[in-house]
Amino acid sequence: MALALLVVMVISMVMKQLSASSCAPSHPQEKFCRADFVLRGRVLEEELTYFPETDMVSEKTYTVSVSKKGHIFKGELTCGNVTIITSGSDITSGVTMETEKEYVISGIALPDGTLLTTSCEFVMPYSMVNSHQRRGLRFKYNQGCPCKMRRCYGDDCTMMSDWSIDGDTCLWRHTNVFNPNDCYSKYTYCLNNTLGVCGWKSNRMFEDCVLDDSTRLTMTGEEIRV
Ligand SMILES: *[C@@H]1O[C@H](CO)[C@@H](O)[C@H](O)[C@H]1NC(C)=O
Ligand SMILES: *[C@@H]1O[C@H](CO)[C@@H](O)[C@H](O)[C@H]1NC(C)=O
Predict the structure, then answer these.
(1) Which residue has the CA at smallest separation from atom 9 of ligand 2?
(2) CA–CA separation, 170 vs 189, rounded Å?
(3) In ligand 2, which atom is closest to the CA atom of 146?
């Protein structure tokens, strides 16, 4: 009994670390909900900090200009220049952004006001954020925060129904596990209805997208890595 418990604890610790380092795919809504801040801003400057006496980048500091209040989707921030820090390397989940380009950036706010972001956050050039996602950022993702999402893979998906037993979870049938911007991420929100039950709200692009994805899956017999 005690051994079984220990094994479960160790496994869950390993899983936690795995998902922290490899950054399990998550929906923009999930990223929005767990973030301390979400903003749209233009990257003005990138400043690199190096480990002492090496040419290895330890940290990147971005100066990001947020031009209006409406571009702060979440968090206690003011417009103007904000400073966002990320780790210096991909391996430690650092992100790279181009100067002069506009991005959506989510992240963590430390108690002293420092803003951090990682590759696990919602970081995407604004030009790649589609209209459905833009609406999500403005209204819908926040509305859906009481809801959870759960991923299913392969045969698991056929065993589970669309609506979870406890009603607070949307089932994310991974059409393409390796694509961080898959059909669900692009065209769905997970929202509660008037009875408080959570379900996907997708736009009409979603069905086509899934059909397209699954056709490609069956043709090659394996999942396509994007
Ligand atoms: C924002 O940062 C840029 C680049 O560092 C600087 O030129 C500009 O004056 C700053 N703007 C404000 C309002 O501080
Ligand atoms: C749906 O979620 C919103 C946001 O939390 C909440 O205000 C509302 O009461 C919920 N609706 C129902 C019917 O539970």
Answers:
(1) 196
(2) 9
(3) 5
Domain boundaries, the chain: 31-128, 146-220
**Ligand 1 neighbour 80 (Cβ under 6 A):** yes
Q: Which two tokens stand for residue 10?
A: 């160790």
* Ligand 1 site, residue 81, Cβ cutoff 6 A: yes
pLDDT level of residue 218 (50, 70, 90 thresholds): very low
CATH 2.40.50.120 fits 31-128, yes or no: yes
Task: Report whether 38 contacts 138 (CB < 8 A).
Answer: no
Ligand in nearest proximity to the CA of 47: 1
Of the pLDDT bands very low, low, confident and very high (cuts 50, 70, 90), residue 152 is confident
66's CB contacts (< 8 A; 6+ apart) are: 39, 40, 41, 72, 77, 79, 80, 81, 82
Token pair recorded at residue 78: 């003011």
Task: Tell me how far CA of residue 168 lies from CA of 30, 144, 163, 197, 200, in angstroms.
Answer: 13, 10, 8, 6, 11
Whether 45 is in the pocket of ligand 1, judged by its Cβ within 6 Å, is yes
Kind of pairing, strands 148-152 and 169-173? parallel
